[in-house]
Amino acid sequence: MAHHKAALKSIRQDKKRRARNRYFKKTMRTFIKKVRNAVKEGKIEEATSLLPKTYSIIDKCAVKKIIHKNTAARYKSRLMAFVNKAKNGDLKE
Q1: Rounded mean pLDDT of 15-29?
Q2: 8 Å CB contact between 83 and 48
Q3: For residue 43, how far is the Cα from the chain centroid?
Q4: Which of 32, 51, 71, 92 could cross-link with 67 by S-S, CB 3.0 to 4.6 Å?
């Protein structure tokens, strides 16, 4: 256990940050799954309508440095490619 005041405060701060980071990351993954599942079920319109909200959450995670900005760009790019393939009927999953 920490003995210094600063170390104790740091532990408290880390606990709060970890909870916030886990919330945002879990929310992001949930929305990505919603989009991918909607596409797999053939609900292209629903997936398309979920994309802006999903992009927003991914961007928030990147701004808060929960994920790297290039990781965010990759997630968004792959999601859009997945939805576009489904729109064109090229999806083979």
Answers
A1: 97
A2: yes
A3: 20
A4: 71
